[in-house]
Structure formats: structure tokens, C-alpha cells
Amino acid sequence: MVQKHDARRLHYDFRLEADGVLVSWAVPKGPSYDPKAKRLAVHVEDHPLDYEDFEGVIPEAQYGAGTVIVWDRGTYRNLTEKRGRPVSVSEAVRAGHLSVWLDGTKLTGGWSLSRTRGYGDGDGDNWLLIKKVDDRADPARDVTADEPLSVKTGRDLRDTAEDTGSAQWTRERATWIPPLLDAPADGRRCIAVRNGAEIVLWSGDHQRISDGDTRIARALAGLAADNFTIDGLITDAGEYVPIDLLHLLGHDTTVLPRDERHALLAQTVEGAEEPIRPL
Predict the structure, then answer these.
(1) Which residues of the chain have pLDDT under 50?
(2) Which of 240, 204, 246, 244 is nearest to 221 (CA)?
(3) Distance CA 188, CA 232 (A)
(4) Are 104 and 2 within 8 A, CB to CB?
(5) In 137-196, which ranges are E strands?
(6) Between 20 and 30 A from 191 (CA), which of 62, 110, 210, 244?
(7) What pLDDT, in 10s, does the model give residues 7-42?
């Protein structure tokens, strides 16, 4: 997916889902369908998967403050090989070269990302995003100028910025986080994410649990903490058993020892109503 991001400077955030995160590059001029156009792409920190659908406003004083729209999204295939052997995305990023085939709404065909020196300024991790020569290449097409709107809402950046109802994103927001513990065999993995009144249940591999028990969501909404990511199990009896705490009140708890996480988890779910069943 690609987000059009009006921060200090307008740029396009090019992101690929891999290994439980969004591997990301900031592309100041945006992608080009011209294979001769070498677009600077600054490799930035990985983003959480929940960010892939974000469209709205990042408040002032937050990292990346500005307006964001979902400019393009779709699927991709990793084409990277070395001596005929497939290379994973994470390995390709470490090595400094990645080839992908995109099937997006606006971006299609083969593209390459290669680490480089001599482009950009400062000490950034600079790469080049280049369209491969294939039947989708079109030097005459200016995709960023011709298609400026969100593929999610059809809005432009100004409409999104001026809409007081637009979503906001901060670093403190709870998101899906890959589980730290091995999967127990006595239930279905369920990562519960709460941000205020918003509660979303996810599977361990980041698939939304569409048939999530509304009783579980109501019980989670009754907890005192209104910002958390809890790793748990939905048992055959329909109970939700929390087993780990991954985020709490704006803080990443995965950096804590397991016993400290479990102590905080016990406090977080203290007094929980059914069907939440503490360990």
C-alpha cells in the first residue's frame, strides 16, 4: 500500500507487508511509470500492520504530523532471487535490493528498490524506486498527477484535513502486535486491541476475527484501561482467557520481562466480567 502524506514535505509512503510489519520507504516525488525515472526512496522504520488502513490526521507534536490518505493498495509478489534462489523480503532489505510485482489500483507491474549512495541528503538510508521495463511501463503516464485521490474514500488531502471527523493516529495508539508466547493448544488465538470505544479482535496472524463474540468486546469495554493490546485465547466454551499483555496505556510492554507483563495483565483484567476468565 502507498499513503500520500502531507507532513513537513509532501511525499508518498511505500509499504510492503512482511514478517508481521509494514516495511516502509518515503518517496518524495512518488512512484513513476517511467523506467528511466530513478525516484529517491528513503528507507524508514517499520510500521505496525494496523497502519495500512489509516487515513486521517497525525496531530502536531507527533512524529510524522500531517494529513494522510490511502493513495493506493493491493497485493504484491516478491520476485527477488539470488543465484536462482528465492530471497525473503527481510533478507532482501538487509542485502539492499528488492524486486516485486505489484497488483494495486494505481500501481501495477514490476518494480525494484535498491540501496544507493549519491542520492538525497544527510545520512539517510537512501534507495531508488524504479519501474521495471515490462508491458505496464508507460513513460508518458504521470500517475501521481493524474490520480491524486484516496482509493479508500475518494477524498483528497485537503478534504481529509478539514474533516473534523477524520481519524487520528498517534504513537500511543494500541495496534495488533505479533504474539510473544507459543500458541497454546486449548483455544483459538485472539489479540484484543482497544483504543477508547474501539475494540477489534484479531487472530494471531493478523486476520480480523469477524465472528468475534460481542460479549467479549462488551466485557473488554468494561475494563478500566481504555488502551491496550492483550494476547489471549477464545476457548471452546466461549470464554476469553488473557495470557499476555503487549501494550498498555500508550506504552510498549513487550520490552518488559514476562513476569512483569503478567503482573500488569492481572491488574488490567482485574474485576473483568464474563466471558473474560483470567488465568
Answers:
(1) 122-123
(2) 240
(3) 8
(4) yes
(5) 167-168, 188-195
(6) 62
(7) 989 999 999 999 878 899 999 999 999 999 999 999
CA-based nearest residue to 253, from 179, 189, 197: 179
pLDDT at residue 122, rounded to an integer: 47
* Residue 37: DSSP 8-state: -
CB-based contacts of 142: which residues, under 8 Å, 6+ apart?
A: 32
Secondary structure (H, E, C), 64-91? CCEEEEEEECEEEEECCEECCEECCHHH
Q: Which residue has the cell 494471531?
A: 204
- 3-class SS of residue 107: coil
Could you give the C-alpha distances from 93 to 98, 115, 117, in angstroms and in order?
A: 7, 9, 15
Q: In angstroms, rounded to a whole number, what is the distance separating the alpha carbons of residues 162 and 184?
A: 47
| 214 backbone dihedrals φ, ψ, rounded to 5° | -65, -25
pTM (predicted TM-score): 0.68
